[in-house]
């Protein structure tokens, strides 16, 4: 194939790709997007083969531009295929969860919940919520690591309630708990959001194993006043968890992730003590008076 033909096909490929991207961005109706998605265009590989956008490619665009109806359509009609690693333009190392990571990063909470619901329904995707993201771009962080980095407390709770593990380490050997503690150590900005993320992580962590423990032990004058003596001593292993925390850890461990948050709503405890999405403050500290 001559260079002029290759150049022309390359331009066509870019043009069709931009048209589809723009259509998703402009919230075009689902039927129109599906017509465009399934149109074959030149995708320049060694054989200059024809291809169309996969449901996975399309879902990435839907997440970026928060196109709820299109995301819902793709997940309901192509569930497993839509959550495969995308084929083009995205750096994703299998087996990763790029759509979930992107939904966390862009704070697309409605789409995040749609994706999680699908993963509960498909046996092949039971571990999807704990898959690490691309090692090239984010050091193998899980969606929970990313939510902690962004201090998105509600997203942290949604992920934990739906089965995200707070014990998984990224490539640097850090857990989500380390991510929050490092942020508390390095900056006094958004302290309340950091503490709320920390409280949620502790609720879903029946045992503690994290990299920052020595840092806490070496700096009690900093951490004690910041966290409160009870929480500080629990984190460094000097005291057991307070009654409320220990009880909730046991209860939450028994609940099925697929039933979150309904299973927590149904608990026979005061509503103020239930860790539910949408709450502005954590009620863990309410138990300090016990």
From TrEMBL:
Region (Disordered): 271-290
Protein name: Uncharacterized protein
InterPro entries, sorted: Ankyrin_rpt, Ankyrin_rpt-contain_sf
PROSITE patterns according to UniProt: ANK_REP_REGION (PS50297), ANK_REPEAT (PS50088)
Repeat is among the record's keywords: yes
Key words of the record: ANK repeat, Repeat
Organism of provenance: Xenopus tropicalis
Pfam families: Ank (PF00023)
ANK repeats: 139-171
Keyword Ribosomal protein: no
Superkingdom as given in the UniProt entry: Eukaryota
